[in-house]
Amino acid sequence: MLKPFTTPLFKSSFLAILLFSATSHAGKDDFTQKIELASLYQNADGIAKRATYQGNVVIQQGTLTVSADELEIDASQGEGNEIFIATGKPATYSQQQEDGSIVTASADKIEYHRQTRSLSLEGNAQIKQNSSSVQGKSIKFNMELEQIVAQGSDQESGRVITTFQPVSKPKKPESEQQDKQP
Length: 182
Prior knowledge:
By secondary structure, this protein is mainly beta. It has a single domain, classed as lipopolysaccharide transport protein A fold (Sandwich). About 10% of the residues lie in helices and about 50% in strands. It has helices at about 1-15, 175-180; strands at about 35-40, 40-45, 50-60, 65-75, 85-95, 100-115, 120-130, 130-140, 145-150, 160-165. Strands 1, 2, 3, 4, 5, 6, 7, 8, 9 and 10 form a ten-stranded antiparallel sheet that branches. The chain starts with a helix and ends with a helix. About 25% of the residues are buried.
């Protein structure tokens, strides 16, 4: 009785390990860390190479975290070509970059394409880094090249909204300010 349960569990855990094992500029050390995937329910099909996780799904690998209501993993195209589809209200992603900054993203659906090391955010999509953000209907983010392509939303004007926070100018020392006065 235990064998049928452990086989799908082993296969689904194996599929989860493939999630973020490729190297990237984003938190390189994360990809050498173990992956922990927690959910209230999981179902895996080793022959079809698909797995589904439901209920408070959390994936943790180093500083990388994905949270969702549901996660589907499609490994049918072979190792290195897996697609991970996280859905929620919203599904979220966060990871510390090599420079120490944190990138966060949220959307109704987040797809991670392992081969291209990219995220596709669909529905109420938003990505933030430092004090800047981009919001739209859909956003594509290449994690390795740190490139963003966004499409307008259905909100208000239907446009992509990008926000840059002002950076305060460093004050000059008093001695420089006094030298310039007549």
